[in-house]
Amino acid sequence: MINKQLRITGRVQGVGFRWSVYQLANQLHINGIVKNQKDGSVYCELQGPVDDIRQMINKIKQGPTPYARIKTIDIKTGKVKNYQNSFRITR
């Protein structure tokens, strides 16, 4: 079980990006959160098995919605948290 924290920049707000990340996370049984940031980026915390997290990050890099344009993804390793076995869109 690992925890990854992502900061994604580009055209990622107002294009269904968070909803698409939410759907991917549920398909892959990944826990965590996704939220818009004031600077126009999106922040994600992803937690689950290594292979599932790797697959999720690859899908995010491809752009989970056709309207999003990913410019950069900064990835950091975080501490494992209790997300109560869920993935949420937060504010």
UniProtKB/TrEMBL annotation:
Residue intervals of the Acylphosphatase-like domain: 3-91
Active site, per annotation: 18, 36
Pfam families xrefs: Acylphosphatase
Keyword field contains Hydrolase: yes
Keywords: Hydrolase
SUPFAM superfamilies: Acylphosphatase/BLUF domain-like
Catalytic activity, reaction form: an acyl phosphate + H2O = a carboxylate + phosphate + H(+)
Broad enzyme group: hydrolase
EC number: 3.6.1.7
InterPro entries: Acylphosphatase, Acylphosphatase-like_dom, Acylphosphatase-like_dom_sf, Acylphosphatase_CS
Source species, domain of life: Bacteria
Key word Hydrolase present: yes
Gene Ontology terms for molecular function: acylphosphatase activity
Family: Belongs to the acylphosphatase family.
Stated name of the protein: acylphosphatase
